[in-house]
Amino acid sequence: MTGEKFQKMYLEMVLNNQDRYKQDYHKTVERVADSSAIYKGKPVPFLYNPMFFSKEEEEDFRWIGSMMMQIGDSVTDRYIHDELFRKKFGFPDFIEEMILRENKYDIHVPIGRFDVFYRNKGNFKFCELNTDGSSAMNEDNTIGRILLRSRAMEDFGRKHSIRNPELIKSWVEESIKIYKKWDETEKKPNVAIVDFVESGTSTEFKLFKETYEAAGYNCIIADPRDLEYRDGGLYHRDYKIDLVYRRIVTFELIEKHDQIPDFIDAYMDDAVCVVGTIRSQVVHNKIFFRILHDQDTMKGLNEEQREFVRRYIPFTGLFRGDRKVFDEVFENKDKYIIKPVDMNASQGVFAGRDFGKEEWKDILEEVFGTDYLYQEYVDPYERTYVLFEDGQFKSRKLGSIIGIFMYNKEYKGLYTRLGAESIISGVTEYYTVPNIIVET
Hints:
Elements: H1 3-15, H2 18-33, E1 38-39, E2 42-43, E3 51-54, H3 55-81, H4 83-86, H5 93-100, E4 111-120, E5 123-130, H6 137-148, H7 151-157, E6 162-163, H8 169-182, E7 191-194, H9 202-214, E8 219-222, E9 228-230, E10 233-236, E11 239-241, E12 243-246, H10 250-255, H11 261-268, E13 273-275, H12 281-284, H13 287-292, H14 295-298, H15 303-312, E14 316-318, H16 323-331, E15 336-340, E16 350-351, H17 357-367, E17 372-376, E18 382-389, E19 392-407, E20 410-419, E21 431-433, E22 435-438
Parallel strand pairs: 3-22, 7-8, 7-12, 12-13
Antiparallel strand pairs: 1-2, 4-5, 4-19, 6-22, 9-10, 10-11, 14-17, 15-16, 15-17, 18-19, 19-20, 20-21
């Protein structure tokens, strides 16, 4: 049975028993409001309805994540060893130097969230790859724990074996495994979760901090501007840091690199274990999808990987150069989405179908020739979900984007956002729903 069929069963159960679940819905809303599921100071919008997947579909995600890891490793290896190939990416010199610095734990992408539009194993397309500052584990797990306590999920759980994959403790465990490759002694590392204070997800950071501490490790949350490189080590005041859990995204590191010289120097001298290294930028930068479709890149992949790219990576091109590129994107606006090469949270992303011809032309004129990409637009796959509106449970079709969490090259769980708009993100109307795997 598929997740979509489990969803239909759940939908019918709630819609046909409105009075049984209304009061419990309001209690669930209160629990989320009082929880750590906070984004930009507000409770995360959610539904009284998880995203259901079968255990067979979970294996699909394991395969998708593994294939992308293999491809990402192959391209990153080539970046490191092929000077001419590196020019395709156009990274600043100091970022290139940080990427090329030897990595003692020998994992290019220690943590990632690979976002896909998924219906089934043969019907999915990638949206983007997040390997810098991958986030939202807390949203899924916190709302998941709350929803599993709801009356509707308790009723559903009496008929089915269900679980919400754990994402916090498992990352703590995997990051320590990675650290032990960097330092093979039995030393317990002092951990620092590092990000710019104006950009960090404070509630999620606090949960990770508590989890590190519960596992027996000292842990702080630190702004990289407050770090000092001295006596061969990286310090926050008198706290010597052994392991940095890097949540700084690289585009922000580039913007503010002159504010964090001590962090960069300690990184380049390998004076501290940084998980992950800046090597993950090779895969994280959105230009990666364009480069994957180059025939030169394809030659470095095996046949299975080449077929994977052709079928599942949306066509992507640089929005610059020949005016024919501009005309193609303008004249076929419903076929394309444009996005900056390296921003997060869907900043600066525009889908042609959301605009009239003249407005679309104005947007394109403004960004043509800058660091923008154009990409094949992919319709999010839809399911029908339960929403509570005007005092009643109702059904509504929504599209979804599924994030596949990969820790230390292994699949660990999922993150799902739903929405009715062309772009599903935190800057549009959206809902976060936890992912429930139905075992039986």
